[in-house]
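Q: Structure tokens for this one, please.
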Amino acid sequence: MYTTIEEVIEIRRLGYKLSPVKVQFKSSVQNLRFGDLHADTILEGSIMSVPLWAAKVLEKNGFVEIQSEGFEEEFYKSVAKEKLLKDSLNLSQLSENFYLELLDFLDKKRSIPATDIMARSEYLKIYNDVQDLISIRIRKLLHYARPYSDVSDVLPKLTLEEQTLLKMLQKNVREFVSKILEVEK
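A: Here is the predicted structure, written as tokens:
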């Protein structure tokens, strides 16, 4: 079965949105119902675990604050590590949900009003760092996409999205080489 990167990301995003996150209620709430979640009374300041999708709805409506897991720090550490390793073929280990968390992180930064000059400047810096990180990792993946490359050491360091990309690159490189060399598949 041939799967596109977009399909992999969308499927993974759906599963990710079901993962639990901690929220702190900004005000008391009565008779809350979200899918299987039901609570008669939740007091202001209460902390509870809810699915990410529900937390985002509650946050958007001003009821809760999502308790951050510190992705911003993870992001900057990952960018710094990858930039340090940019001239080698070594890849740093990214967390399993790195790109999913990155998408949420970018969405949050992107939603800042255009009038907030400092926040927009920060967003542009983050955007450039994301481009650098992706460019460095793709360059390394291209190396491992060569025919007959042993990828067993690098696979554990790749996210599922990167593993899918590497498989697609390997397939396309093999087809290209076979066609140029007129070799049967």
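A few notes: The chain has a mean pLDDT of 89. The chain has two domains: 5-66, 71-181.
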